[in-house]
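Quick one, T. Sequence first:
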Amino acid sequence: MSHTVVRTDALSPTALLSDDDALAAALDDSDSASVAVVGQPFAGREAVLDAAERRLGARRIELGPESNASAAIDAVGSAPLVVANCQHLFNREVGGFDALRAFLDALSGADSAVVTGWNSYAWSYLAAIENVDATIPTALTVEGLPADRLFELARRTVDTLPTFRRDDPNESLISTRRYTIRGRTLGVPVPDRAAITARRADRPSPMEAVFERLAAVSDGNPGVALALLEWCRDDDEIRPSDVETPGTDASPGREAAFCLRIVLASERVCRERLVERLGERVERFLNRFARGGLLVRAGDIVRLDPAGVPAAVAITDRERIL
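Structure tokens:
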């Protein structure tokens, strides 16, 4: 599987925000503005943070799964600051929110602008559990890109684009989706949106149809869309019906889905953290998700695969895990 990640210099910060002037307005609102940049994994929030860093002439701190949060806490003060990947300020366990609370306390007394970057799933969880949105009321949400902008991004960043082909006009408009319920696998007929699109009287070109499908499946997330473009191409060709996500429709169970949600909200996490929370059965969960193309393992670090994000979201949302 490909692990395509979009270069931040290939993304326009204004294209990623609902308002072209949103970042400038938020930063100019006050000399001591506290601003959150919130986005899905691989959606481009780094490009917005880059723009904020340049505009403010700020110091930048990158947090990660093995970071010591004290550096970010101590840096909040009288000089502009950008802190990326703030989802690593907490762990979903007893005592796992101390660093986050200390950081939020420091933000409350900051004398200069602090711009923070957050995974959207971690932000939603913390808004419900820790009222983080009350401490940082100005939040800029990274938006998905439409199909035409995804194509322009691919044209600029992909070394060799595949050849775009039409789907077979005799292809059925119905496909079968399989679900496993209590050990029994059932086939359920569902409309095939890609085939229906290709049949329209005013149907788009094969390239347009592929990128419309990529935009729909990825929710406009540029990192996910480009990863899917690489993953779905077959012998340097691709058809609209080829665009699908890795993973499985079968439910892995609530504990496994909770494990996956932690990775989804963290983007990168130490395996030992997951073991501390869920025990050694984590190994079984991780192996399953790695085989399905949702995760990548590198030593003790577990990270999301960009192409696996839609499946990870679907699995954890199905279990209603915050």
